[in-house]
Amino acid sequence: MRWIVLVLLFFGMMINFADKSIIGLAAVPIMEDFKLSYAEWGLVGSAYYWLYPVTGIFGAAWADKVGAKKVLGFLMLTWAVLQFGVIAITALPLLIVYRLLLGAFEGPFSPVAYSHADKWFPPKQRGFANSVVVSGATVGAMIVAPLLVAMITAWGWKYAFAALGLASLVWAVAFKFLTKESPVEAYEKAKKKAAPEKFKLKDLKYILTSRVALFTTLAYFSTYFIVVWLATWLPLYLVEVTGMSNGQMGFAVAAVGIASVVLYMGVSVLSDAVFKKTQDWKISRVYVTGGAMLIGSLSMLSILVFHNPIWVITAMCLAKGLTYAILPIGPTIMINEMPERRGLMTSILTSSGNLAGIVAPILTGFIVNLAATKIFGYNLSIAFMAVLVLIFSALFMIFVRPTEQVQSDESELSEQVGS
């Protein structure tokens, strides 16, 4: 059952990020249809994240109370409705409202998915499990880009969006009938579960004062600048700066996605292996992840020096793959600090990180709009992101010292199934 859950979470994350990234892949026809400037386009990209951090926290707290399965199914159904509703969009204000609502209902998915995967896997496999969930994001955002571009070209951008709505509907039905809420339910050995404890002020105080929570969240936040930039601006960058056609751009985005999946899954597997051997959270989760982020940020900075298109794609692969290491490992670190608040801890991480989603598209849009040349504007945005990751990954490695939980790999799952 755990593998069925993991596979469906992978596909759910794939749909989530396809919803996010298709707006970037359809940037040219949308901007032409509505006569948008770069600044207005940055506003469209930012609108997705205006409610995302808030709903992420409340949605995850709701999942802790009523169960992740119910919440994930409900979220998918709302995505389907919103994506079908794209057909009615006729002006910029409606486009912004659509992106605002889609972000609001997609905000809780990542933290709830991480928490749900964590529930099904023992500690020694959680880095891998979360990396599979995160890889769904890369597949949705980048690897399926040629397919999404083909759909946009053949059907028009509105019907391509509606096709993703259909995918959401299919997923909701599959998740309803093929999965269980937890190993307890799957093995049918538990009595009626006690209601979770109410949130206490001391929990909030811990979150606000913990160096682990603070610097893990800042590292996640810095990486999310790259997440959002790749989804919103990379297609335009490849077309306008490197001179690629739309078809070439689609395959280049897919290549970056494929390579990055291999890289950050490799980092996650390495982190799990080091943890299994040493049982040391600092070495296995912090140093391995932070070191990967440092290398990734330096790779992104190299684009400012070496402009060859082949190297640009190579550097993007390294930057995305290595900086993304925090996405699967970050939730593992946060949950380890407060296991009884899984949903809350992952939502604090992802929602705080997604604040970058509000800033990054608008900031990039204004930089490109105001710069003397497009190339100079794009380079400034790339330099800003790379330096941000460089600084916060270094702080992450210096200040984060996770709590060492004394518990065997299988004991938590054994307790859940009534062993």
Automatic annotation (TrEMBL):
PROSITE patterns: MFS. The chain crosses the membrane at residues 47-64, 71-90, 127-153, 159-179, 212-231, 251-274, 286-304, 310-327, 348-372, 378-400. The keyword Membrane applies. Coiled coil: none annotated. This is MFS transporter. PANTHER family: BLR1003 PROTEIN, SOLUTE CARRIER FAMILY 17. GO terms for cellular component: plasma membrane. InterPro entries: MFS, MFS_dom, MFS_Na/Anion_cotransporter, MFS_trans_sf.
